[in-house]
Amino acid sequence: MKRSVKLIAGNWKMNGQADGLAQARRLIEALVSEPTSSRVAVMPPATLVSRLAELASGSVVEVGGQDCRAEAAGAFTGDISAELLAEAGAALVILGHSERRQGHGETDADVSAKVEAALRAGLEPVICIGETLQEREAGRAIEVVRSQISGSLPMSLNGRAFAVAYEPVWAIGTGLTPTLEQIAEVHAAVRAALVEQLGEGGQAPLILYGGSVKPSNAAEILAVEEVGGALVGGASLKADDFLAIIRAA
Asked: In the chain, at which residue ranges do the beta strands (DSSP E only) sit?
């Protein structure tokens, strides 16, 4: 199956503040003057979702959240539900990022419940998977990502819009990246696992690569078989860098 439209998504993490909107405005204006064939999304901190959604209204830039609670509402101080993100203008949400899995102890079951919540609210989940350096060195990378797919992706995803983002934990924010051969190997294994789990429905979702994606390496990574886009961290905070990655697609 040919998947010609890639998704380039920027994860601002806990960065941006209000001055990030100036970078977002520059991004939007540049994509008006020089349109792209790719989908473009920005996931800012929750405090900026509504403002960015308003700014991006009518443009090609989609807005997403960085996480959501499984429950729709309740006494969960500091958390945000999928419904609240959707109401603020989000169309997508990142789930299962390694910084949530490792820093907050999220399990595959937790991620699966959040995926269900995203679907309930009409959000498109971007579900993150990836191995640690220890798991990679032990030769367990494929085993780990297949297990995460099995545990994190509920069957209710079949026929729904979603993406999987492969992010080797050891490459996030470190400047390190796997070889193109390693990326190809894991992306092929992810596709096989998706088809095994969802049948023909597993052919449709994009598989993004994330982990120190930058203008200097974006083109070669995005050209790898089964790489359907990128989940970009630090480079998405600067409009010019993010634009260079979008152009590389």
From this structure: 7-11, 39-43, 61-65, 92-95, 124-129, 163-166, 206-210, 229-232
**pTM of the predicted protein model:** 0.96
CA 110 – CA 128 distance, rounded (Å)? 13
The pLDDT of residue 3 is 61
CA count, 13 A, side-chain hemisphere, 47: 10
Length, in residues, of the chain: 249
Pick the CATH number of 7-248 from 3.20.20.70, 3.30.413.10, 2.40.128.490, 3.40.50.2000: 3.20.20.70
Place of tokens 């998405």: 236
Tens digits of per-residue pLDDT, 207-221? 999 999 999 999 999
The catalytic residues are 97, 167
